[in-house]
Amino acid sequence: MRVGVLGVQGSVKEHMDKLKLIKGIEAVEAKDKDTLLTLDALIIPGGESTAIGKILVDFGLKDAILKLNERKVPIWGTCAGMILMAKHIVNDERRHLGIMDITVRRNAYGSQINSFKTRLIIPAISENEIEAVFIRAPYIESVGDGVRILAKYEGKIVAAQQDNLLATAFHPELTDDLSFYRYFLRLNS
Asked: What are residue 103's phi and psi, to 5 degrees?
């Protein structure tokens, strides 16, 4: 399976390193639309959503990602990636990809200094607690029909799935746990 990490900004290397640990995965850093269109799955990493959103438009990557979604290719957005996927952003008038029926709040847990780690129990993902790293993290304020809430932290939605789309407010790539990767890759079957 050919799995790409959108390689324009953010935690690209960390996602690539995790994918390389999974047997049968060809990890690809996707920096152009031609590469994007060859993928069996795509991860949109954390970073700065406004900067990534601008790059998506300026380099024609947005249309390629929208085509992947039309083909029901699994797409996973972590942190900023989740913001980019959201149909609505509460504290920002921009709409980037708008492919997932969620409403998110950017920097919901505060600034960089308010970043934190915690452990979450997410039965759909793992029988064990999962470490979750939140860095200037968003959260999901509401979900539309057909969106499955996977995890909450202090009453706020921090992980969700809608068909082929997965979104996490936190950074699984910064932990040793591959559970979210394995779950994501099963969306392709």
From this structure: -115, 125
Question: Which listed residue (79, 93, 96, 129) is catalytic?
Answer: 79
Given 14, 15, 96, 171, which residue is catalytic? 171
Binding site feature residues:
47-49, 106, 135-136
User: 100 and 87 in contact (C-beta within 8 Å)?
Assistant: yes
Active site (annotated) includes residue 79: yes
Q: Does domain 2-186 have CATH number 3.40.50.880?
A: yes
Q: Which residues are annotated as a binding site for L-glutamine?
A: 47-49, 106, 135-136
List 134's β-bridge partners, or say none: 116
Catalytic residue among 14, 15, 96, 173: 173
Contacts of 10 (CB under 8 A, 6+ apart): 45, 46, 47, 48, 52, 79, 80, 81
- Give me the residue spans of the domains in the chain: 2-186
Q: Tell me: the pLDDT tens digits for 52-85?
A: 888 999 999 999 999 999 999 999 999 889 999 9
